[in-house]
Amino acid sequence: MDGFSWIVLSPIKQEIFLSLVGMLLLLVGAFRGKTSVGFIVTAVVVAACGAIAGILSGDWTPIDTLSGMLIVDGFSEWMKVLILSGIVVSLLLSVSWLRENNLLKFEYPILVLFSGVGMLFMVSANNLLSLYVSLELSSLCLYVLAAINRDHLLSSEAGLKYFILGALSSGLLLFGISLVYGYSGTLSYVGISSFLETAESMPYGIMVGMIFMLAGLAFKISAVPFHMWTPDVYHGAPTPVTALFAIVPKVAAFGLIIRLLVGPFAMLAQESAQIIMVISVGSMLVGAFAGLVQNNIKRLLAYSSIANMGYAMLGLLPNVPEGIAGTIIYLTIYMVMVAGVFGILMSLKRNGQSIETISDFAGLSKTSPFMAYAMTALLFSMSGIPPMAGFFGKFFVFQAAIAGGYMVVAVIGVLTSVVAAYYYLRLIKVMFFDESAGNVDENTSLSRHFVTVGALVFVLIFTLLPNHLLQRAIEAATSLFS
Amino acid sequence: MILGYIAVFAPLVAFLLAGILGRKCGDKFSQFVTCTAVLMAAAASVQLFFTVILGSNPHTLPVMTWISSGNFNVDWALRVDQLSVIMMCVINIVSSCVHIYSIGYMSHDESKSRFMAYLSLFTFAMLMLVSADNILQLFFGWEGVGLASYLLIGFWYHKDSATAASIKAFVVNRVGDLGLLLGIFTTFIVFGTIQFDGIFNAVTDHTADRFDFFGYQIHALTLICVLLFVGAVGKSAQLGLHTWLPDAMEGPTPVSALIHAATMVTAGVFLVSRFSPVFEYAPDALMIVCVFGAFTAFVAATIGMTQFDIKRVIAYSTMSQLGYMFFALGVSAYSAAMFHLVTHAFFKALLFLGAGSVIHAMSDEQDMRKMGGIWKKIPVTYAMMWIGSLALAGVPFFAGYYSKDLILESDWASDSPVGHFAYYMGIAAALMTAFYSWRLIIMTFHGKPRADHHTMDHVHESPLVMIVPLLVLAVGAIFSGSVLYGGFAGIPHQKTVESKATEIDEIESEMKEATQDQMEHIIKSESADAIHETVWNKEAFFGKSIVVLPEHDSVAKAHHVEKWVKLLPTIVGAVGIFLAYLAYMFIPSIPAAMVRIFKPLHILFFRKWFFDELYHIVFVKTAAALGTFLWKRGDGQVIDGLGPNGVAALSQKVSTVLSKFQTGFVFQYAFMMMIGLMVLVTWVAHAMGLFDLIPQFLNMR
């Protein structure tokens, strides 16, 4: 150990900076109480933006630090930008809603920030230990966030469910880690990788350990059959928290999974592909079919996210940079679309009450045409209709799956996306053709409007820049394989 | 050069202007625009007649690339050769007359703009058809005229019968179009191109090509020709696919004159003439064409004798005359067929517009049994109908006399069994033609008035705007035969090829020097016999646009047939006229007596040989039954039941089942996770073949 010199710490200066900001703001909140909420939110947003700027301007050459506990490369930087943008966007979406519903506590932005810091560590974890610790850091914050409306039955139930099942998944993950460690004798990614390369026969223990680990991580991205918490938590948690859940943690967990599959378990690519395939197909099927009968829009979005995670996983099947680039782009596009949809969802209120069921959207095209048209564009994009961004996302992952020879899975994906299109189109039908359910309140939040318009512009103009983005994503993904 | 573009595209511009702006700018605007455009096109085509035909200057005008895919290239281009210019002249002149006539005829109609726009659309499509440089462009025009015909037959769409007739016309034509399409495909397979020059220049290389079809060896060129002829049968209402033509009379009368007499129905004749280089090498196909034409001419004439609707009589007459054209084509007398096409266009359009004038005068009455005794009240119309009928019946020195006699003589001169058969059928049809023509005139104009008092008081001569087009067409019906005879038929005294060629060169140089006025003067002056003999000569007239093998040249031989062959058509025409007078003017009891004596025959003719009834039972009913079966059982139960509805219902069920898993109990969720984990481990173990290792483990113990 050569101590905590600047050389060791500089690659993770953003994380350190954000942690320090978080702790400082915690103090501010503790002493100043409720009055400081506005300041804290602003500070978190500014700090996150600063961190994004720092990452974008920084050096993206791969470097590992803290004795190989963490690694910083093009991939992790890309994911970090995504995560931090997600944090900023979800805070922008949340504030007005929380204030309107009397939920804006000073802990909220700080929890979000700490969770974000945990996720930043997740995507650059290079050791099973750092993996677990960073995952727990982010998860613990999220458990609290899910139950932040503690006076509300559904919210506390959601938090509790998420916590219990999360603990179970952590148990699975830990058990898997212990198996891997037991058979390979090391926790470092590089060590596991080189152990597998030199192993004479197939170490089944490590294989089973990997399955347990992937099961634990699949919980975080709400993939079938570890998805059961998702509808309940999405439904029960306050809408801004749901938005946060939908937008950010999945990206981080995906980053973790990708790094695991490409790094330590690269030699087990065949086995991991089998797992990914089962999980992916299951997610696509359940996400598409179970969504058909949902009436609550948040539950619907939960199933939609399950299905979307299934699609995103398609890109991981062939274990090549192009496929991973497809997944990254898919996640990016998905994040933007979901942010837009939640922006609209939180904007829509009737007599001060948030609207949550699909029938509440009836006749929205007449009462609030901009919202209706924006929602339509976003839903078209989600169902993958060209030239919206969502089409390209699906296109890239399907292309990757087909190029890798996973034709059947790709076909299932296309068919389920047809089924899923039903519930998106149904919402559009309700908005445009059903009798109006009454006027909606005026949207008062500028930040929310900003997010919605931004998402809308993104899905509409994406068709002009897919190649550029794909190129950058391939570069980021290639850095994993070096 | 620009003339070709004007002649074809002026009506398109008119259609777009009248179609788009018609509602805003009013009916006057539409009428003005369309009439001006078509008159311009007509003037341009007449000009082309002088430069292209008399000046022997066929050329192709490029428009733009249409399809370019691999070795399949199709261009939009205007083929301005002798054949297409003849058609352009006919189309544009008749169309101008009809456009102007329509201003008067449709004066009481609500949607004049729409009518004028459709007429211009039709004109453009027809011009596109005749000026096509490849079969696909021809097909574009072919379908375009079909569309315009559909729109115009059903112009009074609030009338059920009109709607039904328009649909019938479209559907029956589809049968023919299928043949044409197959013909186009076959042509592409055989020749590798659909461009006319490419096809015609390569014909001699493919005379021995054969298709293997279920063990049968089919001559490729014959197959192409027969398929193209199927298209012609549909469009030109030849026997079998003719049933739409009489019903098409539901459309306004100017439409009947333009589309269903003068131009569109002759597209089949044009098609066969255009493909003469191919047909010449497919004698079997020519024989089929000849037989079809002969039967059509005969059958249509028999029906025409018994009908009472004035327009239907003329419609069957049209069908019969088209039969003439086809049996002329069948003996390689393409120029004779084209000749009859031209003269027929004039006198049949005249007859239709005359009939329209009568209908207009009789307050929209079409049944001849309710007419009569009006000839003094509408003398000009009466005279026009006479001229038209004289031309139709082939009375000497009227247009029809020259062309019909040429056809009959050519058939006789061809010295083939089918040719002689066609000759006799044609003679029989000629007798009947003369008979029903005068039956029409006498029933319509003479005798005691059979219309009610109210109608008779209203009988009036049509306005000038309707009379002038009639006069123009009458001039054509009288003189087009004698003036154009030399060009279409050649002159009896054959000259040697060399002397002809030199003379043609002389004339050409003369033509180039001569100004337009002088040229017209030259053409019209009868004293210029030398020019007349050379330019008005079949070979120079058609150039390379029609190909006839020397041994098939029945038109040339037609000048040398026996005297009686030449005289017979005129004699039977006179007899027919005499019989009509006898039966309908002098001894009015004859028709009833004849009907009584030949009752079965009369029923057969009157009921149009039961074609409609037969088709209704064989095709319409079975198609409807099949359709109902496929709709209710096939589509409704099988496809919808198993497909959309079934899958949707199943999806809903699956969805409900999946929702049931979502119980809300944490322990069940945890249980699901564990089960899922087990499944994953098992699946991977299975996929990696670990279970196969179990026996080994057991053995080791």
Mean pLDDT of chain A: 91
Most extensive interface between two protein chains, with residue counts: A-B, 37 and 27 residues
Q: How large is the radius of gyration of chain A?
A: 21 Å
Instruction: Please state the average pLDDT score of chain B.
Output: 88
**Lateral strand order in the biggest sheet of chain B:** 1-2
Structural class of chain A: mainly alpha
- Domains counted in the coordinates of chain A: how many? 2
- Unreliable segments of chain A (pLDDT under 50, ≥5 consecutive)? none
Written account of the structure:
- The complex is a heterodimer of chains A (482) and B (701).
- Chain A is mainly α and 482 residues long.
- Chain A has helices at 6-9, 13-32, 37-57, 74-100, 107-124, 128-146, 153-184, 189-198, 204-220, 229-236, 239-247, 249-262, 269-290, 297-314, 321-347, 364-367, 369-382, 389-403, 407-433, 446-461, 466-481, and strands at residues 63-65, 70-72, 349-350, 353-354.
- Chain A has 21 helices and 4 strands.
- In chain B, 74% of the residues lie in helices and 4% in strands.
- Mean pLDDT of chain B is 88; it is low at 493-499 and 525-532.
- By secondary structure, chain B is mainly alpha-helical.
- Chain B has helices at 2-54, 82-105, 112-130, 135-153, 160-191, 196-202, 220-235, 244-247, 253-262, 267-274, 276-279, 283-304, 310-329, 334-361, 379-393, 399-413, 417-445, 453-458, 464-489, 497-513, 516-524, 529-535, 538-542, 554-558, 563-586, 590-597, 599-606, 611-642, 644-661, 666-687, 694-700; strands spanning 59-69, 72-80, 210-213, 216-219.
- Chain B is globular, with a radius of gyration of 31 Å.
- The A-B interface holds A 160-161, 164-165, 168-169, 172, 204, 207-208, 211-212, 214-215, 219, 224-226, 228-229, 231-232, 270-271, 274-275, 278-279, 286, 289-294, 419, 422 and B 651-652, 654-656, 658-659, 661-662, 664, 666, 668-670, 672-673, 675-677, 679-681, 683-684, 687-688, 690.
